[in-house]
Amino acid sequence: MLIMLALSALVGWIAAQFLGGAAGTAVGIGTFVAWFIFNFKQGTKGLFKANIKAYLRCRASGHSVDEALSSMVESRYWFSEERKILVASRVADLPSELNEEEKVALAVFTVFRAEQGDPPTEIASKYLEQIRSVYRSQRNQYGPIKD
């Protein structure tokens, strides 16, 4: 973060040399904001991918949906027993009648909410669709799923 802040200041200073003080400041702030948004989006998608990867590897090795979800939570929170118990109980409370894709999407979203808080409804819908998309794209990457 400090590196990007310094880089944004440098970009702003260079822009100020060509465009003037106010424009240079705007360019520097714009650079920082754009970098921050890009990193947040990449971090969010990375969280989705990492959790789905952990889940699918477990499923490909023959574990049930619930066992794989439990393993996903354990691998995410190996450092915090308290967080692991909290998130695991929320994932375990998901409705059992959901199909696998929907259950995984809601479980990954539960992890996201535990770490980032509740996003506004319209953003939550976008994130859930993004999770489903990642799940569908990765579903067969780790071998066939054994039911």
Distance between the termini: 44 Å
CA radius of gyration is 20 Å
Largest sheet: none
Strand content: under 5%
What is the tally of beta strands?
0
The ordered string of helix (H) and strand (E) elements is HHHHHH
Q: pLDDT under 50 segments (min length 5)?
A: none
As a percent range, the share of helical residues equals over 70%
Number of helices: 6
The chain-level structural class is mainly alpha
> Which whole number gives the mean pLDDT?
86
**Any idea what the shape is?**
elongated
How do the strands and helices of this protein lay out in sequence?
Layout: H1 2-19, H2 21-60, H3 65-76, H4 81-92, H5 100-116, H6 121-138
Helix pairs in contact: 1-2, 2-3, 2-5, 2-6, 3-4, 4-5, 5-6
Describe this structure in words.
With 147 residues, the protein is mostly helical. The chain has a domain at 44-138. 80% of the residues lie in helices and 0% in strands. The chain contains six helices and no strands. It has helices at 2-19, 21-60, 65-76, 81-92, 100-116, 121-138. The longest helix is centred in the N-terminal third of the chain and has 40 residues, at 21-60. It starts with a helix and ends in a 9-residue tail after the last helix. The relative contact order is 0.11. The mean pLDDT is 86.
